[in-house]
Amino acid sequence: MEILFEFEKPIVSLEKKLTELRELSRSGQVDFAEEIGLLEKKLKKIVEETYAKLSSWQRVQLSRHPGRLYTLDYFEAMFPDFIELHGDRTYSDDAALVVGTAFWPPPQVSASKEGRIPILVMGHQKGRGTKQKVERNFGMARPEGYRKAMRAFDLAERFRLPILTFIDTPGAYPGMDAEERGQSQAIAESIRKMFELTVPIGVVVIGEGGSGGALAIGVGNFVLMQEYSTYSVISPESCASILWSDSSLAERAAERLKMTSADLAQMKLVDEVLPEPFGGCHRAPERAIFELAHGIERHLKPLIEQDFTDPRGAASLAIKSARFEKFRNLGSFAMDLGTIE
Question: What does pTM read for this prediction?
Answer without folding.
Answer: 0.88
